[in-house]
Amino acid sequence: MKSSRLMLCGLLFASLAGCGSSSDFNDLQAYMDEVRARPKGSIEPLPKFQAYEAFTYSAAALRSPFQPPVKIDLVNRPKGSKEIKPDETRVKQFLEGFNIEVFEMVGTLSNDGGMFALVNGAGGVHRIKVGDYLGRNNGRILAINEAKIDVIEIVPDGEGGWLERPRSLSLKERS
């Protein structure tokens, strides 16, 4: 029994002695020798700082490259007439001082006096009727119903004449 224990201890010692041989760590020892051989304080310098150059995007006002180009057909373009022109002598109404795009139809009212439309924009909700003016392009209200407001605008055609352009403001639900 003692001899078997002694033999077991001998085998264990022999196996552990094999782990301590330096032949297994030759590559590690070579790397450590190389690191120790390097000169002291040989840190690479920092890279040179490149100053930021500001870039101004100058094509912001151009057509989006993702939309097809607009083809203007000069022959079929509507021509204005000298008979159609805005009445410069009439007194401007309050809602003519704003673009028509800022207004949204939010409802209607009706009574014995007729039908009125409610438009939201220009700092509040305004009541308008047929014949009132809306927007900067002399937009006169032609008709009001529960779903929309029909407006006719008088706009310049670019050649000294004026064109009548119909527009409508649809009812905005759930506003």
Automatic annotation (TrEMBL):
InterPro entries reported for this sequence: PilP
PROSITE patterns: PROKAR_LIPOPROTEIN
Signal peptide range in chain numbering: 1-17
Pfam families for the chain: PilP (PF04351)
Membrane-spanning intervals of the chain: none
The keyword Lipoprotein appears for this protein: yes
This protein's UniProt keywords: Lipoprotein, Signal
Domain of life per record: Bacteria
Designated name of the protein: Type 4a pilus biogenesis lipoprotein PilP
